[in-house]
Amino acid sequence: MLTIINTGGTFNKIYDPIKGDLIVPKNNIALHKALKYISKNYEFDITGVVYKDSLDMNISDREIIYNHIKGAKYNRVIIIHGTDTMDITAKYIDERLKSDGIKKSIILTGAMVPLSIDPIDATSNLSFAIASITHIDKGVYISMHGLCLPYDKIVKNRLLGVFEEV
Fold it and tell me: Residue 106 pairs with which residues in a beta bridge?
């Protein structure tokens, strides 16, 4: 049993034919589509908050995310988050958890390509995060591209478009 918090990011983006660009919708449709392909052995408590590209997130958004983690039904939490600033959010969450003395297993994951365009990246990253969450110690992790590491041991290689171990 685990909580999934959807904050938006590329994972969720869809094409807006009126604006002519990709937008982050204020819903969990992409998450529910991805979960159809993933193990049915889990009970998920799903909530959506913020719904932004991570480049647009601010401290208030991170506080909202943290408050949902703090109040989460389960001690295992996966956060769907944009890849550009997931490391900043992870650090913020880690510092707040430690200062509040809360011990939970948190994994941030996302996608480099929207699920609406190509479901492979989003679905595989989420699937790996779900598989990993039962095997990690309490703390804050990032799970991308077949890696699940403490947030300060993984980095987005912007030249190659992949996450790598530090």
Answer: 77, 140
Q: What is the pTM of this model?
A: 0.95
Please tell me whether residue 151 adopts helix, strand or coil conformation: helix
Distances (CA, A) of 99 to 94, 102, 112: 9, 8, 32
**Which tens digit of pLDDT belongs to each residue from 8-56?**
999 999 999 999 999 999 999 999 999 988 867 778 999 999 999 999 9
Contact between 81 and 110 (Cβ < 8 Å): yes
Supply φ then ψ for residue 36, to 5 degrees: -60, -30
What DSSP designation does 91 have?
H
Q: What is the CATH number of domain 2-165?
A: 3.40.50.1170
CA pair distance 76, 112, nearest whole angstrom = 24
Contact predicate 140/94, CB 8 Å: yes
